[in-house]
Every structure is written in structure tokens, then in C-alpha cells.
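Figure 2 data, in text form.
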Amino acid sequence: MQNYVAVKKLSKEYSCRQLFVDVSVTIPDRSVFVVLGHNGAGKTTFLRILCGLVPATSGQVDFVHCGNVLTAAEKRAKLGLVSPELELYGELSAVENLEFFSGVRGLPFTLQRAREILEFVGLKGRGHDYVATFSSGMKQRMKYAQALLHNPPILILDEPTANLDEVGVALVDTIIRRQKEKGIVIMATNEPREVCYGDQQLSLA
């Protein structure tokens, strides 16, 4: 396999409470991996460890692209993240938010690409509006815009359809299907219709 994610004996403990212990799994290219579990089981923490946002208590996560293990900086450029914990900047416009996130990843930004991705997520014509004026559903669409802006090979989704209407849910269906054709999707959810996307599942107790 040239592209995959390898999770090796991953454990996380908070204040003597074990969330999960010795999780090992290989997530291949062109697949969807679903993380399940009740509230507080550690789904979001598991995703945050994969992204490098919090450290594991023990274990290792390797992102392999074109046969090479990515460094932390390289991983930022290859990941797209949609999460309730992701903060958008209400005092900036949609386009300015996209420009900011591109800069954080150390990637080039073009207005043309920003307009294309905003149109794709259903925010055509709203690029210069302040994000503070957006509804919760529009903000969720905006999170997808920033995650997809750089065409990442790995897309990580926490509660993928939160705050979305039926049209928004259909958009997420399209995004997951397209991402699976070219890369990897890792998602945390308990929604039955979303669980069905999974080629592999991990259930956290």
C-alpha cells in the first residue's frame, strides 16, 4: 500500500481514566473508517490524536503517503478536518477564513479556488459576508469548505452532518463518496446512516 494510516497500540488516559487501550488498525487508501461509541467514550479524542492535536498516552500513528511516513508539518498539508471544536472567525469573511486556514497549513491560496469551493458547499455569493452572520448550517458548510480547499488525501470528520438540513446531508454524502474514490475518510459518528459508509469500524466502549 502506498497510502494508508497505521494506528499502533494507541492508548489514551485522562486522570487515571482509560478511554481506550492498545488500539491497532490499518486504514487503507480509498476507504471509509468509522469510529463508534457512546458520548464520552473517546471518539473525538481519538480523532484529535490522529490529527496531532493532543498526544496519546502511548502508541503511535503513522500517516503514509506515496510510501513515505509524513512529518507533522507534512501531515497538516495532507489533512482536512471538520469538527464541532473547529473554530471559524466570525469577524472575518468566508474568503478571509479560507485564506487564513491556507496560511496555517503553509499552502498557497487563490481567490478562484476559494470561490469554487464555496460554490461547491452551497455558499455561492457569500464569500465576502462575515461568518458571524452565517446560520449554524452555513457554518458547518464553511467548515467543509476549509477542509476541502486544498484537496486533502485524508479527510477526518467528527459528527459529519451536525446542523445540516436534508440538502446539506446530501452534500456530505457526495463529499464522502468523492473522497473515498481518491483517498481516505475517517469519521466519528453514531448516526446509523453514517455508520453504513464504513468499510471498517472501531467501537470504543
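Caption note: The chain is about 35% helix and 30% strand.
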